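ENCODED BACKBONE
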Amino acid sequence: MQDGKPYRLNVGIALFSPDGRVLVARRIGDDGPETVTESCRWQMPQGGIDPGEDRDAAARRELWEETGVTSVAGLGWTSRPLRYDFPPYVGPPHRLSVFRGQEQVWRAMRFAGDEAEIDVTATRNGAPPEFDAWRWERLDRVADLVVPFRREVYGAVAREFARFAVPGGGAAAGQGV
């Protein structure tokens, strides 16, 4: 912890399609210290882990809140937590401005449903949508699509989850961890 600010505990989700691509969604706009620009508005689902919440429950909740997806099979976790710092922020008070950045564990999951299940524009749990579009993308390309301060983390996720980025890679439905 530097500057007296802690890292926010967070979970990220790499949701793999049956053909080995991952779901990315386009941010609607800025969220306090997480400033986005037109060229880097895409990201994988992620969100905070509530106090006392199990990390797998947090990953499933965040995935549902941000995408509507519940039809998944677990594939694996990153081997260690990954951190990024927020860029300098001089805007109005914001819920994330009390944090230095985020410490994330990443969950790989295989999508096992119909694409009609995916809806990034709905309001769930009273939170407005963060995204306005989604698509399947090659895992090795996602670091180029995200805001610069997250690229190192996305690169590490891509290296650790590369084995799932092939058709049928990793566990089959119902056989994940």
